[in-house]
Amino acid sequence: MRTVNAPRTPGPEQxxxxxxLSYWFDTLPEPVRQRPGLAGDxxxxxxxxxxxxxxxxxxxxxxxxxxAMRVAVLERETAGFGASGRNGGWCSALFATSPSKLVRxxxxxxxxxxxxxxxxxxxxxxxxxxxEGIDCHYRKGGTVMLxxxxxxxxxxxxEVEEARSLGVGDADLRLLGGSEARELVGATQVxxxxxxxxxxxxxPARLVRGLAETVERRGVRLFERTPVLEIHPGKVVTxxxxxxxxxxxxATEGFSAQLPGAHRDVIPFYSLMIATxxxxxxxxxxxxxxxxxxxxxxxxxxxxxxxxxxxxxxFGGRGAPYHYGSRIEPDFxxxxxxxxxxxxxxxxxxxxxxxxxxxxRWGGPLGIARDWHPSVGFDRRTGLGWAGGYVGDGVAVTNLxxxxxxxxxxxxxDENTRLCWVGHRSRQWEPEPxxxxxxxxxxxxxxxxxxxxxxxxxxxxxxxxMSGLLGG
Length: 472
Ligand SMILES: Cc1cc2nc3c(=O)[nH]c(=O)nc-3n(C[C@H](O)[C@H](O)[C@H](O)COP(=O)(O)OP(=O)(O)OC[C@H]3O[C@@H](n4cnc5c(N)ncnc54)[C@H](O)[C@@H]3O)c2cc1C
What we know:
Blueprint: H1 12-19, H2 23-26, E1 42-49, H3 53-65, E2 71-74, E3 90-92, H4 99-106, H5 108-132, E4 143-147, H6 150-165, E5 174-177, H7 178-184, E6 192-196, E7 199-201, H8 204-217, E8 221-223, E9 228-232, E10 235-238, E11 241-250, E12 266-276, H9 281-287, E13 294-297, E14 303-307, E15 313-318, H10 336-349, E16 358-369, E17 375-379, E18 384-388, H11 397-410, H12 434-456, H13 461-471
Parallel strand pairs: 1-2, 1-11, 2-8, 4-13, 11-18
Antiparallel strand pairs: 3-7, 4-6, 5-6, 9-10, 10-11, 12-15, 12-16, 13-14, 14-15, 17-18
Helix pairs in contact: 3-8, 3-11, 4-5, 12-13
The structure holds flavin-adenine dinucleotide.
Protein backbone atom coordinates (compact mmCIF):
# COMPACT_ATOMS: atom_id res chain seq x y z
CA MET A 1 0.00 0.00 0.00
CA ARG A 2 1.31 3.43 -0.96
CA THR A 3 1.01 5.94 1.85
CA VAL A 4 0.51 9.65 1.50
CA ASN A 5 0.42 12.46 4.05
CA ALA A 6 -1.61 11.70 7.15
CA PRO A 7 -5.02 13.42 7.06
CA ARG A 8 -5.13 16.81 8.69
CA THR A 9 -7.66 17.51 11.39
CA PRO A 10 -9.83 20.44 10.29
CA GLY A 11 -9.25 23.59 12.28
CA PRO A 12 -11.85 26.08 13.51
CA GLU A 13 -11.57 28.02 10.22
CA GLN A 14 -12.63 24.99 8.24
CA UNK A 15 -15.51 24.36 10.63
CA UNK A 16 -16.62 28.00 10.20
CA UNK A 17 -16.38 27.74 6.41
CA UNK A 18 -18.59 24.65 6.38
CA UNK A 19 -21.11 26.23 8.73
CA UNK A 20 -21.39 29.15 6.29
CA LEU A 21 -22.42 26.81 3.47
CA SER A 22 -26.08 27.21 4.40
CA TYR A 23 -28.52 27.99 7.20
CA TRP A 24 -28.87 24.21 7.48
CA PHE A 25 -25.17 23.60 8.06
CA ASP A 26 -25.14 26.51 10.49
CA THR A 27 -27.88 24.93 12.60
CA LEU A 28 -26.44 21.41 12.79
CA PRO A 29 -26.52 20.53 16.47
CA GLU A 30 -23.11 18.81 16.42
CA PRO A 31 -19.68 20.12 15.31
CA VAL A 32 -19.03 19.70 11.58
CA ARG A 33 -16.48 16.93 12.08
CA GLN A 34 -14.41 16.18 9.01
CA ARG A 35 -13.46 12.57 8.51
CA PRO A 36 -9.96 11.51 7.55
CA GLY A 37 -9.01 11.31 3.89
CA LEU A 38 -7.90 8.24 2.02
CA ALA A 39 -4.42 7.24 3.20
CA GLY A 40 -3.09 5.40 0.16
CA ASP A 41 -4.26 2.78 -2.30
CA UNK A 42 -7.26 0.66 -1.42
CA UNK A 43 -9.20 -2.36 -2.75
CA UNK A 44 -12.98 -2.48 -2.29
CA UNK A 45 -16.00 -4.04 -3.96
CA UNK A 46 -17.76 -0.73 -4.68
CA UNK A 47 -16.29 2.79 -4.82
CA UNK A 48 -18.72 5.70 -4.75
CA UNK A 49 -17.60 9.20 -5.72
CA UNK A 50 -19.48 11.95 -3.83
CA UNK A 51 -21.01 11.97 -0.34
CA UNK A 52 -24.30 13.72 -1.06
CA UNK A 53 -27.67 11.96 -0.88
CA UNK A 54 -27.04 9.93 -4.07
CA UNK A 55 -23.72 8.49 -2.91
CA UNK A 56 -24.86 7.91 0.66
CA UNK A 57 -28.23 6.34 -0.19
CA UNK A 58 -26.44 4.01 -2.61
CA UNK A 59 -23.96 3.07 0.13
CA UNK A 60 -26.81 2.65 2.62
CA UNK A 61 -28.78 0.18 0.51
CA UNK A 62 -25.63 -1.72 -0.54
CA UNK A 63 -24.62 -2.14 3.11
CA UNK A 64 -28.14 -3.11 4.10
CA UNK A 65 -28.44 -5.72 1.34
CA UNK A 66 -24.98 -7.23 1.88
CA UNK A 67 -23.22 -6.19 5.10
CA ALA A 68 -20.07 -8.03 3.98
CA MET A 69 -19.68 -5.89 0.85
CA ARG A 70 -16.65 -3.56 1.04
CA VAL A 71 -17.97 -0.09 0.14
CA ALA A 72 -15.94 3.14 0.11
CA VAL A 73 -17.33 6.65 -0.41
CA LEU A 74 -14.82 9.27 -1.62
CA GLU A 75 -15.69 12.90 -0.94
CA ARG A 76 -13.65 15.96 -1.88
CA GLU A 77 -14.89 18.10 1.04
CA THR A 78 -17.26 16.83 3.69
CA ALA A 79 -20.53 14.86 3.59
CA GLY A 80 -23.33 17.14 2.39
CA PHE A 81 -21.00 19.80 0.98
CA GLY A 82 -22.91 19.87 -2.32
CA ALA A 83 -26.58 20.53 -2.99
CA SER A 84 -27.57 17.94 -0.37
CA GLY A 85 -26.52 20.21 2.50
CA ARG A 86 -27.90 23.41 1.02
CA ASN A 87 -31.30 22.73 -0.59
CA GLY A 88 -34.87 23.86 0.12
CA GLY A 89 -35.76 20.68 1.99
CA TRP A 90 -38.68 19.66 -0.20
CA CYS A 91 -38.65 15.88 0.00
CA SER A 92 -41.17 15.53 -2.81
CA ALA A 93 -42.42 13.09 -5.43
CA LEU A 94 -41.64 15.66 -8.14
CA PHE A 95 -39.61 14.53 -11.14
CA ALA A 96 -37.92 17.02 -13.45
CA THR A 97 -39.32 15.51 -16.66
CA SER A 98 -43.01 16.34 -17.11
CA PRO A 99 -45.57 13.51 -16.93
CA SER A 100 -46.72 14.20 -20.50
CA LYS A 101 -43.17 13.89 -21.81
CA LEU A 102 -42.70 10.65 -19.88
CA VAL A 103 -45.92 9.29 -21.38
CA ARG A 104 -44.76 10.26 -24.87
CA UNK A 105 -41.40 8.56 -24.36
CA UNK A 106 -42.36 5.43 -22.42
CA UNK A 107 -46.16 5.10 -22.34
CA UNK A 108 -48.81 5.57 -19.66
CA UNK A 109 -48.05 2.48 -17.58
CA UNK A 110 -44.37 3.33 -17.29
CA UNK A 111 -45.19 6.90 -16.23
CA UNK A 112 -47.62 5.57 -13.62
CA UNK A 113 -45.06 3.13 -12.20
CA UNK A 114 -42.46 5.86 -11.86
CA UNK A 115 -44.98 8.20 -10.20
CA UNK A 116 -46.00 5.55 -7.66
CA UNK A 117 -42.35 4.71 -6.94
CA UNK A 118 -41.65 8.41 -6.30
CA UNK A 119 -44.67 8.79 -4.02
CA UNK A 120 -43.53 5.76 -2.06
CA UNK A 121 -40.02 7.22 -1.90
CA UNK A 122 -41.21 10.24 0.08
CA UNK A 123 -42.42 7.80 2.77
CA UNK A 124 -39.29 5.66 2.49
CA UNK A 125 -37.08 8.65 3.39
CA UNK A 126 -39.21 9.28 6.50
CA UNK A 127 -39.23 5.60 7.43
CA UNK A 128 -35.43 5.22 7.18
CA UNK A 129 -34.88 8.46 9.08
CA UNK A 130 -37.10 7.16 11.89
CA UNK A 131 -35.54 3.68 11.87
CA GLU A 132 -31.97 4.97 11.89
CA GLY A 133 -32.58 7.77 14.38
CA ILE A 134 -31.87 10.60 11.89
CA ASP A 135 -33.61 13.63 13.39
CA CYS A 136 -34.07 15.56 10.13
CA HIS A 137 -37.34 17.31 11.08
CA TYR A 138 -39.27 15.19 8.57
CA ARG A 139 -42.84 16.48 8.38
CA LYS A 140 -45.19 15.29 5.67
CA GLY A 141 -47.51 18.24 5.16
CA GLY A 142 -47.69 18.20 1.35
CA THR A 143 -47.06 21.08 -1.06
CA VAL A 144 -49.21 24.12 -1.82
CA MET A 145 -48.50 25.58 -5.28
CA LEU A 146 -50.18 28.97 -5.33
CA UNK A 147 -51.79 30.56 -8.37
CA UNK A 148 -51.25 34.31 -7.95
CA UNK A 149 -52.41 35.59 -11.33
CA UNK A 150 -54.83 34.46 -14.02
CA UNK A 151 -52.11 32.84 -16.12
CA UNK A 152 -50.90 30.79 -13.15
CA UNK A 153 -54.48 29.77 -12.36
CA UNK A 154 -54.95 28.63 -15.93
CA UNK A 155 -51.79 26.51 -15.65
CA UNK A 156 -53.03 25.02 -12.37
CA UNK A 157 -56.31 24.00 -14.05
CA UNK A 158 -54.45 22.53 -17.02
CA GLU A 159 -52.18 20.58 -14.71
CA VAL A 160 -55.15 19.04 -12.91
CA GLU A 161 -56.82 18.18 -16.23
CA GLU A 162 -53.66 16.55 -17.50
CA ALA A 163 -53.22 14.66 -14.23
CA ARG A 164 -56.78 13.36 -14.40
CA SER A 165 -56.18 12.10 -17.95
CA LEU A 166 -53.25 10.12 -16.55
CA GLY A 167 -55.35 8.60 -13.78
CA VAL A 168 -54.21 10.90 -10.96
CA GLY A 169 -57.13 11.39 -8.57
CA ASP A 170 -58.19 14.04 -6.11
CA ALA A 171 -56.31 12.37 -3.27
CA ASP A 172 -52.99 12.93 -5.07
CA LEU A 173 -53.52 16.36 -6.65
CA ARG A 174 -56.35 18.79 -6.27
CA LEU A 175 -57.27 22.35 -7.12
CA LEU A 176 -58.01 24.57 -4.13
CA GLY A 177 -60.15 27.68 -4.30
CA GLY A 178 -58.75 31.04 -3.21
CA SER A 179 -59.98 31.01 0.39
CA GLU A 180 -59.00 27.38 0.98
CA ALA A 181 -55.52 28.12 -0.37
CA ARG A 182 -55.16 31.29 1.73
CA GLU A 183 -56.13 29.29 4.82
CA LEU A 184 -53.02 27.14 4.25
CA VAL A 185 -50.66 29.89 3.04
CA GLY A 186 -51.45 33.48 4.00
CA ALA A 187 -49.84 34.97 0.90
CA THR A 188 -50.99 37.92 -1.23
CA GLN A 189 -52.87 37.77 -4.57
CA VAL A 190 -53.87 34.13 -4.08
CA UNK A 191 -56.55 33.08 -6.58
CA UNK A 192 -56.27 29.37 -5.94
CA UNK A 193 -53.67 26.62 -5.60
CA UNK A 194 -52.70 23.08 -6.40
CA UNK A 195 -52.25 20.80 -3.42
CA UNK A 196 -50.47 17.47 -3.31
CA UNK A 197 -49.87 15.47 -0.13
CA UNK A 198 -46.72 13.85 -1.58
CA UNK A 199 -44.08 16.04 0.00
CA UNK A 200 -42.38 16.30 3.37
CA UNK A 201 -40.31 19.22 4.59
CA UNK A 202 -36.92 18.24 5.98
CA UNK A 203 -33.79 19.86 7.41
CA PRO A 204 -31.53 18.83 4.52
CA ALA A 205 -28.17 18.99 6.30
CA ARG A 206 -29.41 16.94 9.25
CA LEU A 207 -30.57 14.35 6.73
CA VAL A 208 -27.30 14.12 4.83
CA ARG A 209 -25.03 14.26 7.92
CA GLY A 210 -27.24 11.69 9.67
CA LEU A 211 -27.03 9.44 6.63
CA ALA A 212 -23.24 9.69 6.63
CA GLU A 213 -23.12 8.52 10.26
CA THR A 214 -25.62 5.77 9.52
CA VAL A 215 -23.63 4.29 6.63
CA GLU A 216 -20.45 4.37 8.70
CA ARG A 217 -22.22 2.49 11.49
CA ARG A 218 -23.14 -0.09 8.88
CA GLY A 219 -19.50 -0.60 7.90
CA VAL A 220 -19.14 1.74 4.89
CA ARG A 221 -15.80 3.59 4.79
CA LEU A 222 -16.27 7.29 4.16
CA PHE A 223 -13.18 9.25 3.18
CA GLU A 224 -13.50 13.05 3.16
CA ARG A 225 -10.91 15.57 1.90
CA THR A 226 -10.33 13.15 -0.95
CA PRO A 227 -10.65 14.80 -4.38
CA VAL A 228 -11.22 12.32 -7.18
CA LEU A 229 -9.24 13.15 -10.31
CA GLU A 230 -10.37 10.39 -12.68
CA ILE A 231 -12.94 7.64 -12.86
CA HIS A 232 -12.18 4.49 -14.91
CA PRO A 233 -13.68 1.03 -15.13
CA GLY A 234 -12.36 -0.76 -12.03
CA LYS A 235 -10.50 2.20 -10.54
CA VAL A 236 -10.82 5.68 -9.11
CA VAL A 237 -7.77 7.90 -9.06
CA THR A 238 -7.67 10.40 -6.20
CA UNK A 239 -5.06 12.87 -5.02
CA UNK A 240 -4.42 10.54 -2.07
CA UNK A 241 -4.22 7.14 -3.71
CA UNK A 242 -6.00 4.85 -6.15
CA UNK A 243 -9.06 2.86 -5.22
CA UNK A 244 -9.62 -0.40 -7.13
CA UNK A 245 -13.19 -1.60 -7.19
CA UNK A 246 -15.43 -4.06 -9.06
CA UNK A 247 -18.03 -1.31 -9.40
CA UNK A 248 -17.61 2.47 -9.46
CA UNK A 249 -20.53 4.87 -8.98
CA UNK A 250 -20.38 8.53 -9.96
CA ALA A 251 -22.58 10.58 -7.60
CA THR A 252 -21.21 14.07 -8.19
CA GLU A 253 -24.32 15.77 -9.70
CA GLY A 254 -23.64 19.46 -10.56
CA PHE A 255 -19.91 18.96 -9.99
CA SER A 256 -19.69 16.21 -12.64
CA ALA A 257 -18.80 18.86 -15.22
CA GLN A 258 -15.39 19.09 -13.53
CA LEU A 259 -14.53 15.43 -14.12
CA PRO A 260 -12.63 14.40 -17.24
CA GLY A 261 -14.97 12.87 -19.83
CA ALA A 262 -18.11 14.28 -18.18
CA HIS A 263 -17.74 17.99 -18.91
CA ARG A 264 -20.91 18.31 -21.00
CA ASP A 265 -23.06 15.64 -19.29
CA VAL A 266 -24.77 18.07 -16.90
CA ILE A 267 -24.52 21.79 -16.31
CA PRO A 268 -24.02 23.20 -12.82
CA PHE A 269 -27.02 25.47 -12.42
CA TYR A 270 -27.23 27.76 -9.42
CA SER A 271 -30.19 27.99 -7.10
CA LEU A 272 -29.99 30.51 -4.26
CA MET A 273 -31.67 30.74 -0.87
CA ILE A 274 -32.23 32.95 2.16
CA ALA A 275 -33.48 32.29 5.69
CA THR A 276 -35.16 34.85 7.91
CA UNK A 277 -34.62 35.30 11.61
CA UNK A 278 -37.16 33.41 13.80
CA UNK A 279 -40.55 35.05 13.28
CA UNK A 280 -42.92 36.07 16.09
CA UNK A 281 -45.85 33.76 16.73
CA UNK A 282 -48.61 36.16 15.54
CA UNK A 283 -46.87 36.85 12.22
CA UNK A 284 -46.21 33.15 11.72
CA UNK A 285 -49.88 32.51 12.35
CA UNK A 286 -50.69 34.93 9.51
CA UNK A 287 -48.30 33.11 7.19
CA UNK A 288 -49.79 29.71 7.98
CA UNK A 289 -47.93 26.57 6.83
CA UNK A 290 -48.97 25.03 10.15
CA UNK A 291 -48.50 21.40 9.14
CA UNK A 292 -45.09 21.71 7.53
CA UNK A 293 -46.41 22.32 4.02
CA UNK A 294 -43.84 23.39 1.46
CA UNK A 295 -44.94 26.19 -0.86
CA UNK A 296 -44.27 28.01 -4.12
CA UNK A 297 -46.28 29.74 -6.80
CA UNK A 298 -46.69 28.68 -10.39
CA UNK A 299 -44.28 31.17 -11.99
CA UNK A 300 -41.81 29.96 -14.60
CA UNK A 301 -38.64 30.92 -12.72
CA UNK A 302 -39.07 28.49 -9.86
CA UNK A 303 -39.35 29.64 -6.23
CA UNK A 304 -39.67 27.35 -3.18
CA UNK A 305 -40.05 27.70 0.56
CA UNK A 306 -40.74 26.06 3.88
CA UNK A 307 -41.29 27.10 7.49
CA UNK A 308 -38.43 25.72 9.57
CA UNK A 309 -38.78 23.99 12.90
CA UNK A 310 -37.38 27.07 14.68
CA UNK A 311 -40.01 29.36 13.10
CA UNK A 312 -38.13 30.93 10.16
CA UNK A 313 -38.95 30.92 6.49
CA UNK A 314 -36.28 29.31 4.32
CA PHE A 315 -36.93 30.50 0.79
CA GLY A 316 -35.16 30.19 -2.53
CA GLY A 317 -35.37 30.69 -6.23
CA ARG A 318 -33.71 30.16 -9.55
CA GLY A 319 -32.61 32.89 -11.93
CA ALA A 320 -28.92 33.26 -11.04
CA PRO A 321 -26.83 33.25 -14.21
CA TYR A 322 -25.21 30.14 -15.62
CA HIS A 323 -21.42 30.65 -15.53
CA TYR A 324 -19.39 30.35 -18.71
CA GLY A 325 -17.60 27.01 -19.15
CA SER A 326 -19.73 25.39 -16.38
CA ARG A 327 -17.53 27.04 -13.78
CA ILE A 328 -18.23 26.43 -10.10
CA GLU A 329 -16.80 28.86 -7.57
CA PRO A 330 -17.60 29.61 -3.91
CA ASP A 331 -18.35 33.25 -4.86
CA PHE A 332 -21.24 32.11 -7.07
CA UNK A 333 -23.10 30.90 -3.95
CA UNK A 334 -23.63 34.52 -2.95
CA UNK A 335 -25.09 36.77 -5.62
CA UNK A 336 -26.15 40.07 -4.08
CA UNK A 337 -28.64 40.92 -6.84
CA UNK A 338 -30.29 37.50 -6.78
CA UNK A 339 -30.46 37.39 -3.00
CA UNK A 340 -32.21 40.78 -2.92
CA UNK A 341 -34.63 39.64 -5.62
CA UNK A 342 -35.43 36.53 -3.59
CA UNK A 343 -35.98 38.68 -0.50
CA UNK A 344 -38.27 41.05 -2.46
CA UNK A 345 -40.27 38.07 -3.72
CA UNK A 346 -40.65 36.75 -0.18
CA UNK A 347 -41.92 40.11 1.09
CA UNK A 348 -44.24 40.36 -1.92
CA UNK A 349 -45.73 37.02 -0.88
CA UNK A 350 -45.84 37.87 2.84
CA UNK A 351 -45.83 41.65 3.49
CA UNK A 352 -45.87 40.78 7.22
CA UNK A 353 -42.17 39.99 6.76
CA UNK A 354 -41.25 43.52 5.65
CA UNK A 355 -39.13 44.33 8.70
CA UNK A 356 -37.94 40.79 9.34
CA UNK A 357 -34.18 40.33 9.13
CA UNK A 358 -32.57 37.90 6.73
CA UNK A 359 -29.89 36.04 8.69
CA UNK A 360 -28.57 33.62 6.07
CA ARG A 361 -27.86 33.84 2.33
CA TRP A 362 -26.40 30.97 0.37
CA GLY A 363 -26.71 28.88 -2.78
CA GLY A 364 -25.23 26.03 -4.70
CA PRO A 365 -25.08 24.14 -7.95
CA LEU A 366 -27.60 21.52 -8.94
CA GLY A 367 -27.27 19.36 -12.07
CA ILE A 368 -29.25 19.55 -15.32
CA ALA A 369 -28.87 17.18 -18.26
CA ARG A 370 -29.46 18.57 -21.75
CA ASP A 371 -32.88 16.94 -22.09
CA TRP A 372 -33.92 17.87 -18.52
CA HIS A 373 -34.32 14.14 -17.76
CA PRO A 374 -32.87 12.65 -14.54
CA SER A 375 -31.28 9.25 -14.92
CA VAL A 376 -29.74 6.35 -13.06
CA GLY A 377 -27.83 3.44 -14.54
CA PHE A 378 -25.14 0.82 -14.27
CA ASP A 379 -23.16 -0.59 -17.15
CA ARG A 380 -22.49 -4.22 -16.22
CA ARG A 381 -19.76 -4.49 -18.88
CA THR A 382 -17.62 -1.65 -17.50
CA GLY A 383 -18.81 -1.71 -13.88
CA LEU A 384 -19.55 2.03 -14.06
CA GLY A 385 -22.71 3.44 -12.48
CA TRP A 386 -24.16 6.93 -12.22
CA ALA A 387 -27.23 8.87 -11.12
CA GLY A 388 -28.17 12.52 -11.38
CA GLY A 389 -29.56 15.34 -13.47
CA TYR A 390 -32.36 15.78 -10.92
CA VAL A 391 -32.60 19.56 -11.59
CA GLY A 392 -34.17 20.94 -8.38
CA ASP A 393 -36.01 17.76 -7.43
CA GLY A 394 -33.39 15.49 -5.94
CA VAL A 395 -34.07 15.23 -2.22
CA ALA A 396 -36.37 12.22 -2.56
CA VAL A 397 -35.36 11.03 -6.05
CA THR A 398 -31.80 10.38 -4.82
CA ASN A 399 -33.22 7.78 -2.45
CA LEU A 400 -34.88 5.96 -5.34
CA UNK A 401 -31.62 6.29 -7.27
CA UNK A 402 -29.68 4.80 -4.35
CA UNK A 403 -32.01 1.83 -4.01
CA UNK A 404 -31.91 1.28 -7.76
CA UNK A 405 -28.11 1.51 -7.98
CA UNK A 406 -27.69 -0.91 -5.07
CA UNK A 407 -29.92 -3.43 -6.86
CA UNK A 408 -28.20 -2.91 -10.23
CA UNK A 409 -24.73 -3.33 -8.72
CA UNK A 410 -25.84 -6.47 -6.87
CA UNK A 411 -27.32 -7.84 -10.11
CA UNK A 412 -30.87 -7.89 -8.72
CA UNK A 413 -33.80 -7.38 -11.09
CA ASP A 414 -36.68 -5.71 -9.21
CA GLU A 415 -39.50 -3.21 -9.74
CA ASN A 416 -37.11 -0.27 -9.33
CA THR A 417 -34.53 -1.48 -11.84
CA ARG A 418 -37.34 -1.75 -14.42
CA LEU A 419 -38.52 1.87 -14.06
CA CYS A 420 -38.40 3.99 -17.20
CA TRP A 421 -35.65 6.38 -16.08
CA VAL A 422 -33.16 3.53 -15.58
CA GLY A 423 -30.45 3.53 -18.23
CA HIS A 424 -31.65 6.78 -19.81
CA ARG A 425 -28.91 8.80 -21.50
CA SER A 426 -29.29 12.45 -22.41
CA ARG A 427 -27.48 14.00 -25.30
CA GLN A 428 -24.60 16.29 -24.31
CA TRP A 429 -24.83 20.03 -23.77
CA GLU A 430 -23.62 22.23 -26.60
CA PRO A 431 -20.04 23.48 -26.50
CA GLU A 432 -19.39 27.07 -25.42
CA PRO A 433 -20.28 29.78 -26.20
CA UNK A 434 -23.60 28.26 -27.34
CA UNK A 435 -24.29 26.76 -23.93
CA UNK A 436 -23.78 30.05 -22.13
CA UNK A 437 -25.86 32.04 -24.63
CA UNK A 438 -28.68 29.48 -24.72
CA UNK A 439 -29.06 28.91 -20.98
CA UNK A 440 -28.84 32.57 -19.99
CA UNK A 441 -31.19 33.68 -22.78
CA UNK A 442 -33.75 31.13 -21.62
CA UNK A 443 -33.35 32.26 -18.00
CA UNK A 444 -33.96 35.87 -18.94
CA UNK A 445 -36.94 34.92 -21.06
CA UNK A 446 -38.53 33.10 -18.12
CA UNK A 447 -38.17 36.18 -15.93
CA UNK A 448 -39.66 38.37 -18.68
CA UNK A 449 -42.54 35.92 -19.13
CA UNK A 450 -43.33 35.97 -15.40
CA UNK A 451 -43.44 39.77 -15.34
CA UNK A 452 -45.66 39.85 -18.44
CA UNK A 453 -48.04 37.26 -16.98
CA UNK A 454 -48.29 39.23 -13.79
CA UNK A 455 -49.19 42.38 -15.76
CA UNK A 456 -51.56 40.88 -18.30
CA UNK A 457 -52.81 37.65 -16.68
CA UNK A 458 -52.29 35.91 -20.01
CA UNK A 459 -50.05 32.80 -20.29
CA UNK A 460 -46.80 33.67 -22.01
CA UNK A 461 -45.98 31.97 -25.32
CA UNK A 462 -42.36 33.00 -24.91
CA UNK A 463 -42.00 30.85 -21.77
CA UNK A 464 -43.50 27.85 -23.53
CA UNK A 465 -41.14 28.20 -26.45
CA MET A 466 -38.15 28.59 -24.15
CA SER A 467 -38.94 25.64 -21.92
CA GLY A 468 -39.28 23.54 -25.09
CA LEU A 469 -35.90 24.76 -26.24
CA LEU A 470 -34.17 24.07 -22.92
CA GLY A 471 -35.90 20.85 -22.03
CA GLY A 472 -36.24 19.32 -25.47
C1 LIG B 1 -30.15 25.82 -3.40
C2 LIG B 1 -30.74 24.48 -3.80
C3 LIG B 1 -32.05 24.20 -3.46
C4 LIG B 1 -32.61 22.95 -3.78
N1 LIG B 1 -33.86 22.64 -3.31
C5 LIG B 1 -34.34 21.39 -3.50
C6 LIG B 1 -35.56 20.99 -2.88
O1 LIG B 1 -36.16 21.73 -2.11
N2 LIG B 1 -36.04 19.76 -3.16
C7 LIG B 1 -35.39 18.88 -3.97
O2 LIG B 1 -35.88 17.78 -4.20
N3 LIG B 1 -34.18 19.22 -4.52
C8 LIG B 1 -33.64 20.42 -4.28
N4 LIG B 1 -32.42 20.75 -4.79
C9 LIG B 1 -31.68 19.72 -5.52
C10 LIG B 1 -31.11 18.67 -4.57
O3 LIG B 1 -30.49 19.31 -3.48
C11 LIG B 1 -30.10 17.80 -5.32
O4 LIG B 1 -30.76 17.22 -6.43
C12 LIG B 1 -29.52 16.68 -4.49
O5 LIG B 1 -29.03 17.14 -3.28
C13 LIG B 1 -28.42 15.99 -5.29
O6 LIG B 1 -27.70 15.12 -4.44
P1 LIG B 1 -26.37 14.47 -4.99
O7 LIG B 1 -25.84 13.61 -3.90
O8 LIG B 1 -26.62 13.82 -6.29
O9 LIG B 1 -25.39 15.69 -5.29
P2 LIG B 1 -24.62 16.67 -4.27
O10 LIG B 1 -25.35 16.82 -2.99
O11 LIG B 1 -24.27 17.89 -5.02
O12 LIG B 1 -23.32 15.84 -3.91
C14 LIG B 1 -22.24 15.68 -4.78
C15 LIG B 1 -21.00 15.48 -3.90
O13 LIG B 1 -19.91 15.09 -4.72
C16 LIG B 1 -18.74 15.71 -4.20
N5 LIG B 1 -17.78 15.78 -5.30
C17 LIG B 1 -17.91 16.45 -6.45
N6 LIG B 1 -16.82 16.29 -7.23
C18 LIG B 1 -15.98 15.48 -6.55
C19 LIG B 1 -14.70 14.95 -6.84
N7 LIG B 1 -14.03 15.23 -7.96
N8 LIG B 1 -14.13 14.15 -5.90
C20 LIG B 1 -14.77 13.83 -4.74
N9 LIG B 1 -15.99 14.32 -4.43
C21 LIG B 1 -16.59 15.13 -5.33
C22 LIG B 1 -19.23 17.09 -3.78
O14 LIG B 1 -18.34 17.70 -2.86
C23 LIG B 1 -20.58 16.75 -3.18
O15 LIG B 1 -20.52 16.52 -1.79
C24 LIG B 1 -31.85 21.99 -4.50
C25 LIG B 1 -30.53 22.29 -4.87
C26 LIG B 1 -29.98 23.53 -4.52
C27 LIG B 1 -28.56 23.83 -4.90
